[in-house]
Input
Amino acid sequence: AQSVTQLGSHVSVSEGALVLLRCNYSSSVPPYLFWYVQYPNQGLQLLLKYTSAATLVKGINGFEAEFKKSETSFHLTKPSAHMRDAAEYFCAVTLGHQLIWGAGTKLIIKP
Amino acid sequence: GAGVSQSPSNKVTEKGKDVELRCDPISGHTALYWYRQSLGQGLEFLIYFQGNSAPDKSGLPSDRFSAERTGGSVSTLTIQRTQQEDSAVYLCASSLVGLAGVHTDTQYFGPGTRLTVL
Output
């Protein structure tokens, strides 16, 4: 059965520092993977998705993620954090028409 | 419309009352999904529509929950005899027609309806 684990319910980084949000999945079939972001009091917005093309996926706002089959991971990174990146980030994997979601990671940016 | 809209944005109700939550998907999107987001948790799938049909209702937590979609567009999620554990944010999403069996199309989310059951 598909499942998603996001390590760390809260991640705190300084402005300008590297952002790394971890996502590991389990899937019995080749997965399709997504990262969504939820800004305070706003709806979910797609950051990027992996659908079996290039393993390094670039998304909006300078974020990217790398699909590593051997590690069953799809970690989200950004070289330099900005205050506006403060939000909650969700990793998800498809199960047919459903999306199976991780519990989310709240990204805190320290000035 | 430009995006997925949901109404109301907030709903406070008393235990035992019925509530209706509405979702207007993006025009032309045939797939529509309802999710529930409880405090501090990820999203929980409730139901999926393809057109007006709901081939997967497996996420509905009890028979107090039902949903319909008319005209391949607007959807209504109804919760009867609400309980306090129903308090959550209910999210609707829509997408273009997905490939049979595997959906890689992006799901576009509405802002949600925050339901509070007193």
About this structure: Chain A is about 0% helix and 60% strand. Chain A touches chain B at residues 4, 9, 32, 34, 36, 42-46, 49, 51, 90, 92, 94, 96-104 (CB under 8 Å). The two ends of chain A are 41 Å apart (CA to CA). Chain A has a mean pLDDT of 91.
